[in-house]
């Protein structure tokens, strides 16, 4: 499956690319449940080895409710990326509204032990219009 990454951010020569898809088969609009899957590719364009230690998400729904999600790694992993390497993962996001957005940052550790924050680009969550 080929993924397109329409959303990208570069911080400290680390590129974070995002592709998002609405999942109608996992959504239940009639009871206020919408679900998206997002694919993230992290590319290390720097000249140093880095380890992703934590993630921080800010998820906003169509009514302005904000959820903050912090945790270790991504989908149970804390990948170490040497220069030129990339890491891909897929995760999901449920909302109680048909529209919203996500953005955030990753906390990395450089080989010398110093911390580094890398931005995750803003991306919209939008279900197709439906009639009830």
Keywords:
elongated; Uncharacterised_ApaG; 5-stranded antiparallel beta sheet; 9 strands; Immunoglobulin-like; 132 residues; Protein ApaG; ApaG_domain
Q: What does this protein structure show overall?
A:
- This is Protein ApaG.
- It holds the Pfam family DUF525.
- The protein has 132 residues and is mainly beta.
- The chain has a single domain, classed as ApaG domain (Immunoglobulin-like, Sandwich).
- The protein is 0% helix and 61% strand.
- It contains no helices and nine strands.
- Strands 4, 5, 6, 8 and 9 form a five-stranded antiparallel sheet that branches. It has a four-stranded antiparallel sheet with strand order 1-2-3-7, with no helix packed on it.
- Strand 8 and strand 9 form a beta hairpin.
- It is elongated, with a radius of gyration of 16 Å.
- The N and C termini lie far apart (33 Å).
- The model has no long low-confidence stretch (mean pLDDT 94).
User: What's the number of domains?
Assistant: 1
CATH homologous superfamily assignment: ApaG domain
What is the chain-wise order of helices and strands?
EEEEEEEEE
CATH architecture: Sandwich
Strand tally: 9
pLDDT averaged residue by residue: 94
Task: Work out the helicity level.
Answer: under 10%
In CATH, what is the class? Mainly Beta
Which blocks of ≥5 consecutive residues have pLDDT under 50? none
Morphology call? elongated
**Individual helix count:** 0
The amount of beta strand, in percent, is over 45%
Based on CA atoms alone, the radius of gyration comes out at 16 Å
Pfam family, one: DUF525
Domain ApaG: 8-132
InterPro entries: ApaG-like (IPR050718), ApaG_domain (IPR007474), ApaG_sf (IPR036767), Uncharacterised_ApaG (IPR023065)
Organism: Qipengyuania pelagi
